[in-house]
Specification:
The chain is an alpha+beta fold and 363 residues long. It contains ten helices and eleven strands. The strands form two sheets. It has an eight-stranded mixed β-sheet.
Length: 363
């Protein structure tokens, strides 16, 4: 029993430290407050607000309950093992093995412990240097992320899209909804480099193309990140592109500039100016939140704008289709010789390798 007791105490300490790192006690307190709120007589008077609260309750329960159950189980094992009852040793040993297995599975959530990791994600892809090849590369990345969403059972909506001059895309923005969508997709934020034989020149020469991927949390509740209206410049104008009957006959497009950082978000996808403004504000909040995490600033007004030229030179991953086949992440050092699978949405190992790298880097 002494060995069993020692193992149980070691596990108890490890579980406690992990729970503290994940702020389980604080999240449980928030969960209980929301549950009390949901039981009031007037809770469903505001249906949209009530649905938002119930969604948050469900999200918190999924995150908190397994840890509380594990802590209770381990505490029981420690307490019973101290009784030094040989008849209980076998059963407690089985319970300890189960608890250790449960802890190993739950430790994966330590990789997704950022303040916005459980949020949905806004993913923008911008063609970079490389002309038509780069615009085609942007379209290839779009397909890759759509396939990744499908493999995870996530949903996505196109918020804005600008077609390439000859092929592909100049830019596209997706709203992606799924479990820990931002926490996983943040691994894709940065410049992606493609090397291949170009299908767009008669000599079929080797071509290097770049595309920039921006990933931000979807912050659609203004209270989650407060922006001073005085720091915003809002312009409305007529939508361009494929207008149909009325899209480009009214001032429905919206461009919002955050003056302190110089961040600009322009949306013209919807016919409603109000819808475009709400979408633009959601994207802007996400970009500012990502900058806050990057620059470790508490106040939005103290943020500095991103260095665009430095970002374009800061490639995070290379995809080589010729003269050999390889995908290599330059941060985690993970690499694979099967770029076709990666481009078909098999990103799980790349994402996990990045999360392991980020966890080690921040620990």
């Amino acid at each position: 029993m002494d060995d069993l007791s020692s193992q149980a105490v070691v596990l108890q300490t490890a579980v406690s430290e992990a729970a503290q790192r994940l702020a389980i006690a604080s999240l449980d307190q928030e969960l209980q407050q929301l549950q009390q709120q949901s039981q009031t007589a007037v809770f469903w008077d505001d249906n949209l607000q009530a649905q938002s609260v119930m969604k948050q309750i469900s999200k918190l329960e999924a995150r908190v309950s397994p840890w509380l159950s594990l802590q209770a189980a381990v505490n029981d094992i420690v307490e019973l093992s101290n009784l030094d009852d040989p008849q209980m040793a076998v059963e407690l040993g089985k319970q300890l093995v189960t608890a250790q297995s449960d802890f190993s599975a739950l430790k994966e959530t330590l990789k997704l412990n950022g303040p916005f990791d459980d949020y949905d994600a806004i993913v923008s892809i911008h063609a970079g240097a490389g002309g038509t090849d780069a615009q085609d590369w942007a379209a290839m990345l779009l397909r890759m992320y759509i396939r990744y969403c499908e493999k995870n059972g996530w949903s996505y909506t196109t918020l804005d899209e600008s077609s390439g001059d000859e092929a592909g895309l100049k830019s596209v923005t997706l709203d992606i909804s799924g479990s820990f969508a931002y926490g996983k997709l943040k691994s894709e934020h940065g410049v992606h480099r493609l090397v291949r034989l170009s299908p767009f020149n008669s000599d079929n020469l080797r071509q290097t193309s770049f595309a920039k991927v921006e990933v931000t949390p979807k912050i659609d509740k203004p209270d989650d990140l407060v922006i001073d209206d005085k720091e915003l410049k809002i312009d409305v104008y007529r939508s361009g592109g494929h207008g149909g009957q009325s899209v480009n006959t009214t001032d429905s497009a919206v461009r919002i500039t955050h003056l302190p950082t110089g961040l600009v978000v322009a949306i013209q996808n919807e016919r409603s100016q109000l819808q475009n403004r709400e979408t633009a504000m959601t994207i802007l909040r996400g970009r500012l939140a990502a900058l806050q995490l990057e620059q470790h600033q508490a106040a939005v007004s103290e943020l500095k704008g991103p260095n665009q030229s430095a970002e374009w030179g800061n490639q995070i991953r290379s995809y080589v289709l010729h003269p050999y086949k390889q995908v290599k992440d330059l941060r985690s050092r993970y690499e694979t010789s099967d770029p076709e699978a990666v481009l078909d949405g098999d990103l799980a190992e790349l994402v996990d390798a990045y999360l392991e790298y980020a966890l080690a880097d921040n620990s």
